[in-house]
């Protein structure tokens, strides 16, 4: 009979990783809970103004904000505010970025489905185009 899998701590042995790749602007802490070809699950904490680069997810991405406030922006649109409790569905292939507000940290639980394709950094001008 199948049973639930308990994942002890993070897949990195309970260690947070600061800016694990060159795909973030600012200080970002990522705690991977699960990684496979099909999905990546992580808690990600952004310091004020920190953000991802533009990116897409082959199968889409769920984002649940668990602390603080920040922004999400789809390519061609303006950034929209997100806050604790919000759940976002970034549809497959939608180019977007997300990150913390100017005066707040933001922590979110993310579930990325399939391959993530990273693009260029979000410019300060793109980040400054925020709306409430």
UniProtKB/TrEMBL annotation:
Superkingdom of the source species: Eukaryota
InterPro entries tied to this protein: Cupin_2 (IPR013096), HNL-like_cupin (IPR047263), RmlC-like_jellyroll (IPR014710), RmlC_Cupin_sf (IPR011051)
SUPFAM superfamilies: RmlC-like cupins (SSF51182)
Residue span(s) of domain Cupin type-2: 44-106
PANTHER family: BLL4564 PROTEIN (PTHR43698:SF1), RIBD C-TERMINAL DOMAIN CONTAINING PROTEIN (PTHR43698)
Name of the protein: Cupin type-2 domain-containing protein
Organism: Talaromyces islandicus
Lineage, opening ranks: Eukaryota, Fungi, Dikarya, Ascomycota, Pezizomycotina
């Amino acid at each position: 009979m199948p049973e639930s899998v308990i994942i002890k701590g993070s897949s990195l042995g309970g260690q947070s990783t600061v800016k694990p790749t060159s795909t973030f602007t600012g200080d970002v802490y990522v705690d991977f809970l699960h990684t496979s070809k099909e999905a990546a699950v992580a808690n990600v904490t952004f310091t004020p103004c920190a953000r991802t680069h533009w990116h897409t997810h082959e199968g889409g991405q769920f984002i649940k904000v668990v602390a603080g406030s920040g922004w999400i922006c789809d390519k061609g649109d303006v950034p929209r505010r997100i806050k604790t409790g919000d759940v976002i569905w970034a549809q497959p292939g939608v180019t977007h970025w997300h990150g913390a507000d100017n005066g707040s940290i933001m922590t979110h639980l993310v579930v990325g489905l399939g391959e993530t394709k990273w693009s260029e950094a979000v410019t300060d001008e793109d980040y400054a185009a925020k709306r409430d």
